[in-house]
Amino acid sequence: MNERTRQLRQQSLFFNNFYATGTRTTRGLEAITLSIPPTPGRSIVKRIGRESGFASLGQQLKQRGYDSLFVYGGRGYFDNMNAFFQGNGYRVVDQDSVPAAAIHFENAWGMADEDLYDEVIRLADADHAQGKPFFQQVMTTSNHRPYSYPEGRIDIPSGSGRAGAVKYTDYAIGKFLETARSKPWFANTIFVFVADHTAGSAGKEDLPIANYHIPLWIYAPQLVTAREVDQLSSQIDLAPTLLGLLNFDYTSTFYGRNLLLADMPPGRALIGNYQHLGLFDGNDLAITSPGAAIRRLNNAAEFRDKQKVTGADPLVARNIAYYQGASHALGNNLLTWRLPDEQALADRRQ
After folding, report:
1. Interatomic CA distance for residues 17 and 70, integer angstroms
2. What is the DSSP letter of 55?
3. Please, what are the domains in the chain?
């Protein structure tokens, strides 16, 4: 961890026990945007023809007058992202939306983080000038092979490996926040930094817990008290937590929880890949696999005690309930966005 990252962590609401749901970017986007566990097969983001009309975080904020945007440093037709976000309440801005003169460095994945954050600032300025609140869900591209970025920014040569890409990402975030602090909208803006997944997902175990552990920072020095939260939590908890910070009363299809509630139940993390689906309770891990295989790993972080169990095992039963519940909801159109009752909204505003 470099000094810039360390300072941001100290100044933020930092969740140190936070886990990705999967091993691919589209699973992370699915979890953050829709707050649901992984469903069988492809992520919802990539389901062509079935990727729209869901009760998303963007829909919740758009309904309240926010300009909900998905801002991506590459071209959003990749992984069907444009269709997904456009179909779920977002206005899409990607590499093709940015004038060529505003892109000073790019590789096969897209524009450099600096150029992307410059566009983020421009979009925020434009909304603020119109008196419109904004929500931007931003995805960077730098941390991918060939790990290239503008020269002269950090002390690691471009293209030399992941360590340089990570350090450049930190540099770009720092530069972005420095610019944002000079803006009139800064004091009233919440900045959330979260990963989509970790760098690697392979291991001797089916679902290696450590390979799903990701950071989550919430930075708003004039709105949110800086502290560390060690509650076990999941990407699906991000949307309810953000809406809770905004003090919004809402109806949703979210499976996640507001992590800042005083009476929170014990934490849990949902993790999976193409073959296995798991529920981690902080110590033990229940796994369901193809062929109705069911296992439980006690002391899962150390992979010490692997047991075959039945669906009657409490942790296994909860695991099945999460994933079968999400699959049932998706298959029966129970995750569809519906406009709230206008009278109920009026009553809430009073």
Report:
1. 26
2. -
3. 8-259 (3.40.720.10)
Residue 346 has pLDDT above 80, yes or no: no
pTM of the complete model: 0.92
Secondary structure of residue 162 in the 3-state scheme? helix
* Amino acid code (one letter) for 305: D
**Two tokens at 146?**
């060939």
Residue type, 35: S
Helix axes 162-180, 3-10, angle to 10 degrees: 50
Read off the amino acid at residue 190. Answer: I
pLDDT in tens, 89-116: 999 999 999 999 999 999 999 999 999 9
Q: Which of 298, 276, 303 is nearest to 287 (CA)?
A: 276
d(CA 198, CA 195): 7
- List the one residue out of 14, 11, 288, 28 whose CA is nearest residue 139: 28
Residue type, 183: K
For residue 46, what are its two tokens?
């990539």
Q: What is the CA radius of gyration of the chain?
A: 20
Sign of CA pseudo-dihedral 326, 327, 329, 333: positive
